[in-house]
Write a structure and sequence with these properties.
The chain is α+β, with helices and mostly antiparallel strands and 394 residues long. The protein is 22% helix and 34% strand. Helix 3 packs antiparallel against helix 4, helix 3 packs parallel to helix 5 and helix 5 crosses helix 6. The longest helix is centred in the last third of the chain and has 26 residues. The termini are far apart.
């Protein structure tokens, strides 16, 4: 093969560069001048693609590094953070930074906020997801300190500070965070509670998760959230909006009550009573069971049943609907007897056997107890007929 020679002489400062390169006839040399002192020869071959974004440190790491060099109070923490977070957030969400006195030392030198960071594909540079962090920054002894918690990646950057309030009774406020996860039909809100202890962010065990939240507030040092309706057709038409109450109990965010907005049928009143029983409100549960036994539904139109394996609209099959209602009343009597026995100190297992015998429990009941269509309804079997309804929750 005949060879060609390329001779290039480049002059630098006080020196001469002589390049003698061997080329084949098929190659197409390209000379790119990078500076007056350098020359490179690049052959016409594939070159690895580089990310579209310059590689940078993760957001939390970067903020900690920058804060470690600051020894004077930052005049405007919101502005300071906004400038530094902006390159990490393609949506340029305006920050909501709350200045507070979390440790109750008389000085409001803590800042609470949520920050979002784009997580990009290393090859394409495209945003894959958006991570969200609950962040607390404090300033003490001329030193800044940053602590944070991660929210679920499923929430895709949708989180915020719901409120700052005392939930433990120690006169020091807790931070209540809420993050959102949107499904095909329903948005679920997840509540998390943290405390600020010794310049550290400590998060309580447990979360409050609610579908289609309509209201959230703090009352008597407790978190109350309302909603609960799942938007998918499969969840069924028997759902009723409810309000759940959560309290900090033994360092855990624990549900202490669920109250339904209404109970229009014996079935709904039964379920309401079972939730009252689950949370220890025995008198309320007994009242609900008594009402379920005595009341009668005006109509089942608008509801749906599963009869003989088929999804059937309410108001069509009056005979089966009547049997359904009779079964619900019998089951309500069973639960009333069970609770009465347990309240007297009878072992729950023995109380279950006794209650079944008193009301004449029959396995055939299960067909009708599980007739309300939709996965949002509790599902019973012979072994769970005396169980806590919270254990049956889907």
């Amino acid at each position: 093969m005949k060879k060609k020679w390329l001779l290039y002489v480049g002059t630098g400062i006080g020196m001469v560069i002589l390049c003698l390169l061997t080329l084949t006839g098929r190659e197409k040399p390209t000379v790119t001048v990078q500076s007056p002192q350098h020359v490179s020869l690049i052959s016409d071959v594939d070159v690895a693609k580089t990310p579209s974004e310059t590689v940078r440190r993760p957001l939390m790491e970067q903020l900690r590094i920058e804060l470690s060099h600051v020894t004077e109070p930052i005049p405007d923490m919101t502005e300071w953070l906004q400038i530094r977070v902006s390159p990490y957030d393609s949506q340029k969400v305006a920050l909501d930074v709350i200045q507070s006195d979390l440790d109750q030392d008389g000085v409001s030198n803590e800042w609470v906020t949520d920050l979002v960071e784009d997580i990009r594909d290393e090859q394409t540079g495209l945003v894959q997801e958006r991570k969200s962090y609950g962040v607390i920054i404090d300033f003490e002894n001329n030193q800044y300190n940053l602590q944070y918690l991660n929210f679920s990646s499923a929430h895709n950057g949708r989180a915020k500070v719901m409120t700052i309030a005392d939930l433990t009774g120690d006169s020091k406020p807790e931070i209540v965070w809420v993050s959102m996860n949107s499904g095909a039909h329903t948005t679920f809100s997840e509540y998390t509670v943290s405390s600020w202890v010794g310049r550290k962010l400590e998060t309580f065990t447990g979360t409050a998760v609610l579908a289609s939240e309509s209201k959230a507030e703090i009352r008597d040092r407790k978190l109350q959230v309302s909603g609960g309706l799942i938007g998918s057709v499969g969840a069924g038409t028997w759902q009723q909006e409810f309000t759940e109450t959560y309290a900090i109990v033994e360092n855990t965010l624990k549900r202490t009550e669920r109250v339904y907005a209404q109970s229009p049928t014996p079935y709904h009143r039964l379920v309401s009573g079972m939730w009252a029983e689950s949370h220890g409100y025995r008198e309320q549960a007994l009242r609900d069971y008594t009402e379920a036994i005595e009341m009668q539904a005006t109509s089942y139109k608008g509801y749906a049943f599963i009869f003989d394996g088929e999804w059937v609209q309410g108001g069509i099959n009056s005979d089966k609907e009547a049997e359904f209602e009779r079964t619900v009343k019998r089951f309500s009597q069973l639960r009333k007897e069970l609770l009465t026995e347990v309240s007297r100190g009878v072992d729950p297992r023995n109380a279950c056997v006794s209650a079944k015998e008193k009301v004449g429990f029959d396995k055939a009941w299960l067909t009708y107890l599980n007739a309300p269509a939709g996965y949002a309804n509790p599902h019973w079997d012979e072994g769970t007929i005396c169980s806590d309804i919270a254990l049956l929750e889907q």
